[in-house]
Amino acid sequence: MLASIETADSLVNQRLEAFPTSPFFAFAEREIQAIKAEVTRSGLIDANFYGKLNIGLMCARELEQSDPQLCDVVYAMLEDIRPK
Asked: For 25, which of 1, 11, 15, 41 could close a Cys bridge (C-beta 3.0–4.6 Å)?
């Protein structure tokens, strides 16, 4: 598993522990779990799957001002998994 995925997952889990009712962190956790499952299943992310991810958009719209650290990690993860 890519280190950036694990880092993003760890940060989101920390945020969920602190804010268990946050819909944003719950959404981020679901997306990261889907990414992890896809990487485990196929070894890579295809363009169709990648195009359906919304975690980056959610960061940009909802969290970038309040949690830039998490968003930076999410953006790095998305760059790492982006189909080449």
From this structure: 15
* Distance separating alpha carbons of residues 24 and 41, to the nearest angstrom: 26
Query: Is the pLDDT confidence value at 10 over 90?
Result: yes
Closest by Cα among 84, 78, 74 to 7: 74
Q: Do the beta carbons of residue 75 and residue 11 sit within 8 Å?
A: no
Domains of the chain, residue spans: 3-81
Residue of 31, 39, 28, 38 whose CA lies nearest to 2: 39
Asked whether 82 and 50 are in contact (CB, 8 A), the reply is: yes
User: How far does CA 70 lie from the centroid of its chain?
Assistant: 9
Can you tell me the distance from the alpha carbon of 63 to that of 40, in angstroms, rounded to the nearest whole number? 28
Phi/psi at 7 (nearest 5 deg)? -65, -45
Overall average pLDDT of the 31-41 stretch = 96
